[in-house]
Write a structure and sequence with these properties.
Layout (H helix, E strand, L loop, with lengths): L4 H5 L8 E4 L11 E4 L12 E5 L8 H13 L4 E6 L8 H9 L3 E6 L4 H35 L4 H12 L3 E5 L4 E4 L5 H18 L10 E5 L2 E10 L2 E11 L6 H45 L5 H10 L8 E9 L1 H5 L9 H22 L4 E6 L2 E7 L5 H19 L4 E11 L3 H19 L4 E3 L4 H9 L3 H21 L3 H10 L4 H8 L3 H15 L6 H15 L9
Parallel strand pairs: 2-3, 3-4, 4-5, 14-15
Antiparallel strand pairs: 1-5, 6-7, 6-10, 8-9, 9-10, 11-13, 11-14, 12-13
Protein name: PucR family transcriptional regulator
InterPro entries: CdaR-like_regulators, CdaR_GGDEF, GAF-like_dom_sf, Homeodomain-like_sf, PucR_C-HTH_dom, PucR_C-HTH_sf, PucR_dom
Family: Belongs to the CdaR family.
């Protein structure tokens, strides 16, 4: 895109010029301007400027001439072209050595060539190159806009841009999923970038602070640059362009590339926004349908099946319901201070990404799914294809948890899995999964996975908590024990629960509680004295176990006298 010294040296007017040094630098040295300079140099020479000179002010003094060339080199000029004639009859060896030392391009010009003609031809070529560059940018901008507005795929966009700029290219969303790529994209560029983006997601999640607009990375074929796609101040995705030589660019060259690629990122950002708007409308319809299905408020079967078909759902398949509750949501948003996004906007996007990932992972297992987010819960129906439905559900949950952790490292999910599964059990399945979630969250804490079939005892205990007579019996057994534990700061109830869990094995219980055997025996005798129950009596053990379970599940204690 920029004019190089090879382009200038190839002009007809310079065909008789002789390259004395820096021949291997012609392709990689850029020229933005041409000037005629005689001593002194001072600040009259700019970077990337081809300098023409006759040496009139310094050729008579070798030291002065050497200093003159040194200043030209230090000014980061593209090259120095010396007219061989009455002032400089031959370039001194010391100058040749100096130029070679700095990999600097040194040309000899025929005295008969007028500098004004060189200036005219060179600047004309530079301006024409820039004009063609901006024409190509405008052509690219119009073509991309046409592609986006006509709904062309990002694969076609990537292919068109790749053909236009002559570099391999891929387009990805902010989750690292490749949405479009050119036909010539090399496997090593794709795999290298996927490794980089997944490491980034694993370390910092989907919302991380971009310190640089352009990120360079090296791969097997050379260097590639990654450019973020911005929309409303947030990252929407990435464009990755490969086939570059050594980085970094010359400053002017980088500006030109960024100007060109800015049109590409803008077009792709529009595509993502259009896609998002269409998805939002579809999501709302699908969310409402799945939520109504969960509540059992869809009755006419013909209308329900017709509506499901229009949304791409198949109700005539066996499903199992999973319910997940996101944990530490506000804590996950706190590190987002560097992102120009409100909590509500972030939460909405977070929910949509979770729904999208839930559907995507179901597809990866070749399963049909229905997903919605309601009342701070992610509700998922996945198709049942395996005899062991719980094992299939847990495998699905494991993969989804990993993806959510990739995108939001501070976020976790607590899960409930229904017992009922099969055909047309959407409402009962949802109620079971929700109960499993609530019980498991209380019993096992956040980030746990609970199955409704395993909550029988907990559901019995919850029912017993409503029975006043049973609660009175539990109070009679536990109040003195709990009061003593509070006064002496010795948790005797916990001691009993570990003892009972170990089926009366004193040695194992002592190890679990990190107690001396005699200390444990003292505690067990104290429990018997305070509760008036014998640990050797099966009925007393039952009453103690039931009472302790009631207390753990929320029974309030009375003040002991």
């Amino acid at each position: 895109m920029s004019t190089t010294m090879k382009d200038i040296q190839s002009l007809d007017i310079l065909e008789k010029s002789i390259i004395r040094t820096g021949k291997d630098q012609l392709d990689s040295t850029y020229v933005n301007w041409v000037s005629v300079i005689e001593t002194p140099v001072e600040s009259f020479v700019r970077k990337n400027e081809l300098v023409l000179t006759t040496g009139v002010g310094c050729a008579h003094d070798p030291n002065l001439f050497y200093a003159f060339v040194t200043d030209i080199i230090h000014s980061e000029a593209s090259a120095l072209a010396i007219a061989i004639g009455p002032f400089v009859q031959q370039i001194p060896d010391s100058i040749i050595v100096l130029a070679k030392k700095h990999n600097f391009i040194l040309l000899e010009l025929d005295w008969s060539i007028r500098f004004s003609d060189i200036l005219e031809k060179a600047l004309e070529y530079i301006h024409e190159t820039k004009r063609r560059y901006f024409d190509n940018i405008e052509k690219l901008r119009k073509a991309l806009l046409e592609f986006i507005l006509s709904g062309k795929s990002l694969d076609l966009v990537a292919q068109y841009v790749s053909t236009t700029i002559g570099h391999e290219l891929l387009i990805a969303d902010k989750r690292g999923k490749i949405r479009g790529k050119c036909q010539t994209l090399s496997d090593n560029l794709q795999s290298k970038w996927e490794t980089i983006i997944y490491e980034q997601l694993e370390q910092e999640g989907i919302y991380y602070d971009h310190e640089h607009t352009v990120n360079w990375f090296e791969y097997e074929n050379g260097f590639a640059l990654q450019l973020p796609i911005h929309s409303s101040g947030n990252i929407q995705g990435y464009i990755v362009v490969g086939d570059f030589g050594e980085e970094p660019f010359d400053e002017d060259e980088e500006k030109q590339w960024l100007l060109l690629l800015e049109h590409v990122t803008t077009a792709v950002a529009i595509h993502f926004l259009h896609e998002q708007a269409a998805k939002e409308a579809e999501w709302r319809l699908r969310d409402d349908f799945v939520w109504e299905l969960s509540k059992g408020s869809l009755h006419p079967i013909e209308a329900t099946l017709s509506r499901a078909k229009s949304l791409g759902y198949q109700l005539n398949l066996p499903y199992i319901c999973l319910v997940a509750k996101p944990e530490r949501v506000k804590e996950s948003f706190e590190p987002m201070s560097h992102v120009a996004i409100t909590f509500d906007h972030w939460l909405h996007e977070c929910i949509r990404l979770m729904e999208e990932e839930a559907e995507s992972i179901a597809k990866s297992f070749a399963l049909k799914s229905m997903v919605t987010y309601q009342q701070e819960e992610l509700i998922i129906y996945i198709e049942v294809t395996h005899p062991n439905t719980v094992s299939q559900a847990k495998t699905y949950i494991s993969k989804l948890n990993k993806r959510i952790y990739f995108l939001f490292p501070s976020l976790s999910l607590t899960w409930g899995i229904a017992k009922q599964h099969g055909y047309s059990c959407f409402e009962h399945g949802y109620q079971e999964a929700k109960r499993a979630l609530e019980i498991g969250r209380k019993r096992n804490g956040v980030s746990s996975i609970s199955v409704f079939a395993d909550t029988t005892v907990d559901r019995i205990i919850e029912s017993l908590l409503k029975n006043d007579e049973i609660i009175d019996i539990a109070h009679t057994v536990l109040d003195s024990l709990l009061y003593y534990s509070q006064e002496r700061e010795i948790d005797l109830l916990h001691t009993f629960m570990i003892y009972h869990e170990n089926r009366g094995n004193v040695s194992q219980t002592a190890r679990d509680l990190n107690l001396h055997r005699q200390s444990l025996m003292y505690r067990l005798r104290k429990i018997e004295a305070l509760t008036n129950c014998s640990l050797d009596n099966a009925e007393d053990l039952f009453i103690l176990d039931l009472s302790s379970r009631l207390w753990v599940n929320g029974m309030k204690t009375k003040t002991a006298e």
